[in-house]
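To assess whether the prediction recovers the assembly geometry, we first specified each molecular entity separately, as shown.
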Amino acid sequence: MIQAAVIAVNRFGLGARPNELAQVALDPKAWLFKQMTSLQFDNQIANTTSAFEMFSAHRKTRTQRRKSQAAASDAMMENKKPSMAAAEMTNYGKLMRQTQKALLVDGFWQSVQTSQPFSMRLLDFFSNHFSVSTSTVQLNVLGPLLEREAIAPNLFGQFEDLLIAVIKHPAMLLYLDNPYSIGPRSKAGKKNNKRGLNENLAREILELHTLGVDGGYSIDDIQSLAKAISGWSVSHPRDAKQQGFVYRENFHEPGKRFVLGKSYRNIYGEKGVRQGEFILKDLARHPATARFVSHKLAQYFISDNPDTALVNAMANTWQKTNGNLHAVMTTLIEHDSSWQPERQKFKTPREFVVSTLRAIEAKPDKPRYFFKGIIYHLTEMGQQPFEAGSPAGYSNHSDAWTGSDALMKRIDWVNKLNAVTPKSSTNVLTLAEQLFADTLSEQTVLTIKRAESAKQARTLLFMSPEFQRR
Amino acid sequence: MKRRQFIGAIGSSLVCWHSPQLLAASSTALNAGTRPKVVWIMLRGAMDSLHAVLPMGDPALLKHRKNLVSAVKEGMHPLERGFALHPSLKTFAELYQRKELITVVATSSGAKTRSHFRAQDILESGFNQADAESGWLNRAVDAYQGQSLAVAHSLPISLRGQHASQTWYPDKFAPSTEDLYDRLQGMYAGDEQLQQSLSMGLETQEKLGDMQAVKRHHQFANLALSCGKLMRADNGPDCSMLELDGWDTHQRQANRLARKFSELDQGLASLRKGLGEQWQNTAVIIATEFGRTVAENGTGGTDHGTASALFLAGGAISGGHVYGQWPGLDKSRLFDGRDLAPTSDNREWIAALLAQHWQLNRQQLNTVFPQLSPVDINLIKSAGV
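The predicted structure of the complete assembly is given in tokenized form:
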């Protein structure tokens, strides 16, 4: 059971905290099942409403500034003080970046402390599956909120609910240019025929979020979906009543839609949003989606080349339950090929850093300062949060992380960490046993034993193949 | 010839002291008063003392380590009693000439273990058993009612305890030592991918013109320089601690130790430079957790041993001597048949230094190093005056 416990905490979780293993060993699978509830985050740091309030406050000052600019230039002529506009602009950008840092730091801290590391890993998976990057100032804050507001509450429910929540979140709509996608025959489209549809979001839904690139969809399906979700937009910063998602009927392309051979009727008025929702629901339940996402999940948790039987079992469950994630994850946990002793995955930088901090039970004096440093190091190791730079997200494959420079950066980081963290009273060999029981290779144990100092021994433990892989 | 080089060295250092910047600094130093200062430099990983202070007068030396001795036969610095310093230890040799360096041979740290971790903890705590919450320097500076500084990210055991100590470290990456890379390569023997990535990473570093190696090499010197400057400032600390790791030389030690000794040597030179006039009031203590085997092993290195050497340096030191009874390297004289036998305990020497330099009394010394008697030798210039 202790070997299974080592697998449970590392392969499915974020690494053991000292003294955790014995408890997990009582029943490793039960330990995982118990965690399968949605995650909750502190929405006081920021939420969609507060983010949009920040945007509109910024808009107001910008408008005022523009108004006063004329006056200011007159004033300049008379040798008076210039306007403070430039300073206000920087302050806004700074505020947004600070809020982003606060969200990232909080997310990181939660990962280190969590008693639901398995759920946290699934959150990381979907956050990357629905990857958004910071392409505008607004997305600094909205990106991390997508994870908290749309993904975390839907982790173990129906995939369709997760999908719809994500696609309707302002972060995704803005990142993939949907707010100003206007149906050519919509009211707005007829008025101004220079503006039109934007297929970006529809294309990525089919290619990356649901069916997968080989999922058997056509260019017509992309266009149909784009028309169905035209009008899915975000509130205007001037609008004080609503913040976040809005459905703009006057942008929406009227008419029937055909997607993957199925027809979806036209819905008039406010309820027109449901046409897109019905399509997303069917996409979420589609066999191609079941296969694509199951494979990706198995690849993420178990192996770069997961066992076909495992993927099939997960996809079957998916279809039987219409994409119930709790059931799909249960199949993953129950399957034998998920528990092979060989460590087939190389930890991502985030997994590596979080598991190290869990192992040493990091309690930094200045958590904000400390985790800002961590974000810098993640960037150095090649995984800056919310900066994958592509809607495909960071690679799901180990090869992406085993490069030589990234490895050297890991060594440097552990070295630095060991220098700044007070030496724990726990002997390193004891810690090694607490984390890995008797699963460490003789070579690793011997190397740690022979280290020239306790600090070096810790560095060796965290850089050992067993700690780097899971 | 040697003497001329020596005079030249003094000349250049005088030029250095008269540069305007340092003149300003030295006038501050005068204001800082003349409180006696202590610098504790801990060498982690077990320095091979037989390669630092070579007992050339012992006929058995060549029997045990012919290759290692032949690697340094050019440019050794002779000391009294048939000993000689490794060629890289140039500043040490200069200080010896100026009677500012004492070498104590065949000392132990009191640790009866060949485990690095435990022996280092014991060396730092100063007790016979390791106590991670109380260090000897902390107890000493507490008795002296002075201030202390650890040049480290986190407080080392030596300075842990009742007395509050400052820590200071520049906010940069801690260096990944050559030694660590060697060990990682060994550990990755069964993991082709990691091994390959590491080799490639190291190759790239080398291609970068050894820049990082140079930087690492200078890091200790820079820390020592800053440490000296901090100590000479008004209200600067009365004692400080520096650490230098990378001494666990199981393989190919001749080249590695040549670099390590020069790193240590430059550190001592920088410390002196940083201290300026305060060097005259300073006693530097340099020690390691244990020594290494007398015989060289099959991979050009040495393994964990017992007795090592202790260095006391500084303007306050009454030096120019090699102290410590020499046990001899004849097979029959070796400890456990393999190690240099200890003939004294580091702590007896450090206790004497604290008594003479900081005027700690018997009772106070007993809290620093319980049940140990200080040696009865003048280590400090003004001692007994």
